[in-house]
Amino acid sequence: MSGGGERVLALLPELLLLLGAVGGLLLGLWTPQQRQWRVRLLVTAACLASAIAAAVALPEPAERVFEGTWVVDTTTGVARIVVALGVAVLVWLASASLAGHPRETEAYVLMLLGGLGSIALAASGDLLLLVAAYLLASVPLYALAGFAKDPAGVEATMKYYLMGAFVGVLMLVGVAALVLATGTTGYPDLAAQLPDASPALLAVGILGVLAGVAFKAGAVPVHFWVPDVTAGTTPPMAAYITTIPKIGAVAAAFRLLAEPFADVPLDVPLLVAVIAAASMTLGNLAAFNQTDVLRLLAYSTVSQVGYLFMVVAVAASTDLAVPALAIYLAGYAVTNIGAFAAVAATPAARTITDWATAVGPHRWLVVSLVVCLLGLVGTPPTAVFVGKLAVFTAAWDGALAWLVVVAAVNTVASLFYYLRWVAPAFAGVPAAPSMQEGAGSGPRTAAGTAQRTRRGVPTGLLHGAAVMSLLLGLGAGWWLAFALST
Amino acid sequence: MLLTVVIFLPLLAAGVLLAAPGIPGRAAIGVWIAASAVDLALVGWMWWRFEPGEGASGIVDGLAYEADLQWIPTVDAGYHVGVDGLSLPLLALTGVLFLACAIYSLREPDRPHTYAALFLFLQTACMGTFASLDLILFFVFFDLSIVGMYFVIAGWGHGNARRSALKFFLYTFIGSLALLVGFIGLFLGSEERTFDMVALAANPPLADSPLAGGLVLLAIGLGLAVKTPLFPFHTWLPDAHTDAPAAGSAVLAGILLKLGTYGFVRIAMPILPEAWQRWAMVAVVVGVISVLWGAFVALAQTDVKRMIAYTSVNHMGYVLLGLGAAGLVASADEGARTVATVGAMYQMVSHGLLTGALFLLSGVLWSRGHSYAFDRWGGLARPAPVFAACFAVAAFGSLGLPGFSGFIAEFQVFTGALQAAPVATVIAVVGILITAGLFLLALQRLLTGDTVVPSGADPDELAEGPGPERADGTTATAVRPRTATRMKDLRSREAAAVVPLLVLAVILGLVPRVLLDVLEPAAMAVVELVGR
Asked: Which of A188, A303, B435, B445 can pair with A280 through a Cys bridge, CB separation 3.0 to 4.6 Å?
């Protein structure tokens, strides 16, 4: 608690990421454009080192360092590992379209910094650090969203930025209100003083802060950027934006509910439960009619956040919440990256039918896609199934049985649109392009363009994610035993 | 360990098939047949070594071939499998029926690798469901069976296959999620917080909260009722059956429906005994409605396969009647309730054999003339005597003629249920009459009179290659008015698939002790547990 120099090493995983970012930038300056894969290697090494450092630190007891602003506990540890490994994988996914790009290094460095921001979100034990982490997890992503500098990307960036700036102000207002009510920003002090604070200030404060994390997580009602950004940017960046910041944001929301907002006189769990129900329902309903695979996945991530917020709602009321979060976050990251890798594997195909045509002869791609998409539904024995089981159990144990029923109904509904993608891919689409579904509604429908699959990294990642999703589901016990080893 | 091998051997074979796309199609089906045969042999070995025990044995004790590994320790879910008198007959049925389907599909022309792999995958899912002693493991296999069947219907069905497959998936997925919600309720309601069926049955959860117990039973019952299917959740069944390939239909009716009824016996009754007693009358009523509804609607069908599909609803209704009667503790003695339970279990096995055979036979009709419509077939006894004989035997068995397994089953259900629910039983007996009538009518339309065969294709030409028309699945609607008078009789592979099923049904009808010795101790255990 002293903030002394000896505890700097408690932040070793974060320091390694920062070191990787700075080192990558410097290395990139002195590397020819065609050899920037060196930066990729460095960045990957930094991520892996960070994940290993985080894994080594997991069994140690929870602590608060730097005057209580930075919490190192199970939730942080899980977020550190998942984010670091996720960034490492996504750097390679992005490399397929970035290799040889004039700003290749910058992209990798930004991805690393965004990951750092996400971890900071998960670890913050102080409102001001939360705001700083929000910015660190947002600003690099604005640049990444528009990285291709094409009209769709620029539009996406503008929407993302404006919405992010607006919600950022809301969040600051919320933080200001909470400071006004209690005179402190540290979570433990807030937890002690908030129950006696003025209800009006409290309401403004809680709404503002939750709006911030909900925006980063892409939850209703601040989810409007998700489909536009996802469809506007490139598939690897879409995977990044819908995976990495969500992990940190959900973990941050979890910590907020578990610590400062645990005993406030307002029914915050109910508010979060309503957000969760709205997210999964609206996400699913909006996904029903999408023919653009990226938009479909975008809305699917909105609904996934709904399931994740279920466990946030019961963060303070059940012991089952932490394991549920640990398994669902990991499962979601793996499965979501896999689904986006499926899109990245066929760069020209943006609609469901195009995709099915493009992968036509590659049966294994379809098998892996089926595993990933059914994984998102929560079909056993994938990781998200175990996550859903744990989340449902935790939510019911936290006296939100109605939310479990809503979530179960939504799961069935989600099956419908995932199958809309799976069915044509599985049954095979006749080569004739005159399918009624193919009449492009997506911005980059490649009607008539050469359809081909990009072999190599994206397909490898798709298969890897499918296998990982199954392994993590079957090995959920080991992962949980490892994650909860404190 | 042996049980684990039995469960995962088909999956292993499926993996081999997918990993080696180079082997020829016929060899792929050969691998399927071999894997299924070995699996059946292993189940046979297990049956041989199985000690049914004296008196009540099963559910909470007397489990053989147990394996128990931790999977998700935070919620105490694990890989816990084992065999008792309830699951062993159904495991054997699974082995028999899948082998029959494998032999029947020997000449499958359309993507044989994937087809065989999917069926092997399905076999693992079904075996796993029957062997599970853990709720989550049960759910995992239960759900995987849905996924596998979806792809079988969507990929190899005919007619409006994609739509029927989707309908099947959505309906049964709703059911499975209701089931999952119910399982979570059991977990949270149990004292030691576990998903282990044995522990839950030994110490039933929610015993002192009738409302929560009732709601959890409602969720579980809903999930199983969709799968079984019971009125009013049966509407997915005829579509799925009509558009599924023959082997898929046989597995769907023969095995997958049993997952639902098996869930009632294995989960709902022993784990929620108090709630089951309280709501047993509902099960009886739903069962009787299913009996009558299935029978009457089947009577009105003009399509052979839809008719058989609806008789499944009817037959599953008898199962529910028997299981419901087993819960009416106050109005019947233990002996009667045991007889009803044994009858219900017997019906599951019997229905699997006979309906499996009927669906395979209707697949023969499709392969000859691409139609299931009654009015396009007639007088088949003359050109296809073996087919006619098999169809007649299966139909008579299915309507409950003495000498067949169906008779033993229905007789016991009625005997056991009469004391507990006399009115319901008497009404249900009417169902037998209607079923008898409709099967006789079907026999008359198909087998007697002038020979009528839809001549969409010349039988000889069909024999050469029934390949291309499967590809788009639209030929079903292309009606050609010509009729022919020739129909090729059962081919040897078709006969080899169907005849053993019928022989088994006859054996079980003539020597019921073979099965009763295994079933009775387990049924007694169920009745004891429900009577707590």
From this structure: A303
